[in-house]
């Protein structure tokens, strides 16, 4: 949605913020009725509609004393020419010196025209934009294109060496070129429009990197899919290639981990090799998973988020194929 459409919508619905605040206040009053509940703290206090310092509209609710600014709207000018593309999606923040943060953000667009000179397929409109933000002044310092020519850049993940891995959530064969890859974008400069093909061609969602090994864990967003581990030939240099594996439950072939399982269920796992992580032409949507399935890999349903936790574990979110349903899996490397 562009700024004009969004502001028009926000202006019409802004009056709904007052009853929303009342609802929050009632819920909090009910929660604390009769004393403090064990294991709970007051936190930052109740939420209030808070004016965006860019638009002047109460776009979100925040605790008292918090403030925010919006930037990087669809249609905003990019440094060096062009306009900010739409369909904003996954992103990550990186330190960029004292009081500076760089944000690399996906744009989950489909076939179209590439908006960056660093383009994989000129006939594809997805990609990334990189912004630098001054946390002291609240100003955007730079906003520029950093990669394009890709399709449906949904999620991805940051790396310990300071890059963003942007992932295509598709296996489309478009304008004579295959899609369904991972691309790497540095904090400075343009991303490499060369796909990391040994990381697999499938409907990617998110990735998480184990800094101890350099292994990259990858989720696949499909109704019947796998969970993967990429072992790079050179840790920290994904362009050197590597080997792809799919998770398998020990002693159980094609274990259904997308089923409704009891909380606390645990499994011993192993990893089976994916012999052919890439194919250059048109393919079945989940040909990588089919290879894993043949070797007994576990099946999931619509894997989404993936994150390396502070406890050195990998966390995976599954929606189980339905809105309002899901599981969180924890993998201990």
Give a topology summary:
Blueprint: H1 3-13, H2 17-31, E1 47-50, E2 60-63, E3 88-95, E4 100-107, E5 126-134, E6 139-150, E7 153-158, E8 163-168, E9 173-174, E10 177-178, E11 182-186, E12 204-209, E13 216-220, E14 227-232, E15 242-249, E16 269-273, H3 287-294, E17 303-308, E18 314-318, E19 327-331
Antiparallel strand pairs: 1-2, 3-4, 4-5, 5-6, 7-8, 8-11, 9-10, 12-13, 13-14, 14-15, 15-16, 17-18, 18-19
How would you portray this structure in words?
With 333 residues, the protein is mainly beta. The chain is built from 3 helices and 19 strands. The strands form 6 sheets. The chain has a 5-stranded antiparallel beta sheet with strand order 12-13-14-15-16, with no helix packed on it. Strands 3-4-5-6 form a 4-stranded antiparallel beta sheet, with no helix packed on it. It has a 3-stranded antiparallel beta sheet with strand order 7-8-11, with no helix packed on it. The longest helix has 15 residues, at 17-31.
Order of helices and strands: HHEEEEEEEEEEEEEEEEHEEE
Mean pLDDT: 89
Please provide the count of β strands: 19
- How far do the termini sit from each other? 40 Å
- Beta-strand percent range: 25-35%
**Which structural class matches the secondary elements?**
mainly beta
Helix content: 10-25%
pLDDT under 50 segments (min length 5)? 3-40
Number of helices: 3
Tell me, what's the shape?
globular
- Record the strand order, biggest sheet: 12-13-14-15-16
The major sheet is characterized as: 5 strands, antiparallel
**Spatial extent as radius of gyration:** 22 Å
